[in-house]
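Reviewer 2 asked us to include a model.

Predict the structure of this chain.
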Amino acid sequence: MYVCLCRGITDQDIKDAIAQGASSFREIREQLDLGTCCGRCAPEAKSIISEELAEIAARISVAA
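Predicted model (C-alpha coordinates):
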Protein backbone atom coordinates (compact mmCIF):
# COMPACT_ATOMS: atom_id res chain seq x y z
CA MET A 1 0.00 0.00 0.00
CA TYR A 2 1.26 3.45 -0.84
CA VAL A 3 1.79 5.60 2.23
CA CYS A 4 3.45 8.59 0.57
CA LEU A 5 2.04 9.36 -2.85
CA CYS A 6 4.37 12.32 -3.35
CA ARG A 7 7.47 10.12 -3.11
CA GLY A 8 5.97 6.75 -4.04
CA ILE A 9 6.83 5.17 -0.67
CA THR A 10 4.98 2.04 0.40
CA ASP A 11 4.38 0.44 3.77
CA GLN A 12 6.84 -2.27 2.72
CA ASP A 13 9.51 0.39 2.09
CA ILE A 14 9.00 1.57 5.68
CA LYS A 15 9.14 -1.99 7.05
CA ASP A 16 12.30 -2.66 5.04
CA ALA A 17 13.94 0.46 6.50
CA ILE A 18 13.09 -0.78 10.00
CA ALA A 19 14.49 -4.22 9.17
CA GLN A 20 17.70 -2.48 8.10
CA GLY A 21 18.00 -0.76 11.48
CA ALA A 22 15.90 2.40 11.41
CA SER A 23 14.05 2.84 14.68
CA SER A 24 12.29 6.20 14.46
CA PHE A 25 10.23 8.36 12.14
CA ARG A 26 13.17 10.76 11.89
CA GLU A 27 15.55 8.02 10.70
CA ILE A 28 13.05 6.73 8.16
CA ARG A 29 12.31 10.26 6.96
CA GLU A 30 16.01 10.77 6.35
CA GLN A 31 16.46 7.42 4.59
CA LEU A 32 13.37 7.52 2.39
CA ASP A 33 12.64 11.26 2.12
CA LEU A 34 9.28 10.43 3.70
CA GLY A 35 6.94 13.22 4.70
CA THR A 36 9.04 15.99 3.22
CA CYS A 37 6.64 17.15 0.54
CA CYS A 38 3.03 17.68 1.65
CA GLY A 39 3.28 15.81 4.96
CA ARG A 40 -0.10 14.07 4.74
CA CYS A 41 1.61 10.68 5.02
CA ALA A 42 3.25 11.38 8.39
CA PRO A 43 0.43 10.13 10.66
CA GLU A 44 0.02 6.87 8.72
CA ALA A 45 3.78 6.38 8.51
CA LYS A 46 4.16 6.92 12.26
CA SER A 47 1.42 4.38 12.88
CA ILE A 48 3.13 1.79 10.67
CA ILE A 49 6.46 2.46 12.38
CA SER A 50 4.92 2.06 15.85
CA GLU A 51 3.15 -1.16 14.89
CA GLU A 52 6.25 -2.66 13.32
CA LEU A 53 8.49 -1.76 16.27
CA ALA A 54 5.90 -3.17 18.71
CA GLU A 55 5.76 -6.39 16.73
CA ILE A 56 9.55 -6.69 16.83
CA ALA A 57 9.58 -6.01 20.58
CA ALA A 58 6.91 -8.68 21.12
CA ARG A 59 8.94 -11.23 19.18
CA ILE A 60 12.01 -10.42 21.24
CA SER A 61 10.16 -10.75 24.56
CA VAL A 62 8.63 -14.08 23.51
CA ALA A 63 12.04 -15.40 22.47
CA ALA A 64 13.62 -14.37 25.79
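The longest helix spans residues 42-63. Strands lie at 2-4, 9-10. We have added this to the supplementary material.
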